[in-house]
């Protein structure tokens, strides 16, 4: 399985489209949003940095599903089924790939915050913020894999884009939740993206994430994990 993970990581990171959409776009959006007008506070730049790093990780995690759907249509997934790897190992290997490929998106935005926008955190806060966002991205990797195993390549791409934009906006990754109407802010508090970004914001502010954030994120991870497993089994019956 280790060799399989290395192969998938290399394939993903060599994809120019992945680099542009998952790394370049979040960095560009972060620098644009935080420098328009030139009057944004240091606190806003730090909060926006975490939100946009979470957005980059979200896009990178979901993109794995598109790769899975393409593998399914090309016959690669069928080849994996005749290897000694079990279905659980295949899904786990793809999930581990996701934990690796989200890191460049997270690190790139954090570097932009520190080097270009002058965000100042303690050394441990930089490290723990990156780790918190890295660990918190797992539910979105599982969601992307579920879509990829269940849907066609073309449909997976469309669904993942819709999930990416919808979860980012409603979860408050682009705009502060404080600007939302009360009803939308309530909905946002139950989304995985809102609680995902809360992990990073809490560390950047020097406080512990709330128990609600950890509980809601764990519940979404379990739901998306079940979705990915069921989708993989169904893809095997359809093959």
What is this entry, summarized?
The chain has 239 residues and is mainly alpha-helical. The chain is 81% helix and 0% strand.
Mean model confidence by pLDDT: 86
Q: So how many helices?
A: 11
Q: Which structural class fits the helix and strand makeup?
A: mainly alpha
What is the oligomeric state here?
Answer: single chain
Question: Element order, helices and strands?
Answer: HHHHHHHHHHH
Shape: globular
Give the uncertain stretches in residue-range form. Answer: none
Query: β content, as a range?
Result: under 5%
Number of strands: 0
Rg from alpha-carbon coordinates: 18 Å
Biggest sheet descriptor: none
Tell me the helix content: over 70%
How far apart the termini lie comes to 22 Å
> How many separate domains?
1
Structural overview:
There is one protein chain. The protein is mainly alpha-helical and 239 residues long. The chain has one domain (2-238). It is 81% helix and 0% strand. It is built from eleven helices and no strands. The protein has helices spanning 2-13, 16-35, 42-74, 76-81, 87-116, 123-136, 138-150, 153-170, 182-188, 192-204, 211-238. Helix 1 packs across helix 5 and helix 10 (192-204) crosses helix 11 (211-238).
Descriptive labels:
single chain; mainly alpha; 81% helix; 239 residues; 11 helices
């Amino acid at each position: 399985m280790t060799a399989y993970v290395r192969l998938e990581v290399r394939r993903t990171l060599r994809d120019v489209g992945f680099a542009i959409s998952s790394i370049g776009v979040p960095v560009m959006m972060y620098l644009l949003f935080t420098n328009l007008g030139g009057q944004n506070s240091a606190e806003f730049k730090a909060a926006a940095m975490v939100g946009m790093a979470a957005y980059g990780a979200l896009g990178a995690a979901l993109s794995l599903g598109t790769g899975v759907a393409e593998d399914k249509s090309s016959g690669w997934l069928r080849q994996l089924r005749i290897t000694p790897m079990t279905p659980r190992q295949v899904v786990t290997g793809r999930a581990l790939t996701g934990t690796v490929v989200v890191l460049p998106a997270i690190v790139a935005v954090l570097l932009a915050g520190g080097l270009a926008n002058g965000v100042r955190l303690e050394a441990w806060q930089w490290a723990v913020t990156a780790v918190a966002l890295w660990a918190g991205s797992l539910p979105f990797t599982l969601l992307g894999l579920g879509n990829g195993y269940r849907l066609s390549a073309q449909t997976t791409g469309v669904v993942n884009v819709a999930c990416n934009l919808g979860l980012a906006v409603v979860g408050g990754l682009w705009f502060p939740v404080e600007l939302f109407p009360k009803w939308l802010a309530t909905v946002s508090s139950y989304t995985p993206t809102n609680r995902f970004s809360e992990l990073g914001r809490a560390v950047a502010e020097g406080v512990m994430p709330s128990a609600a954030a950890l509980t809601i994120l764990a519940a979404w991870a379990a739901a998306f994990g079940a979705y990915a497993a069921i989708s993989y089994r169904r893809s095997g019956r359809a093959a």
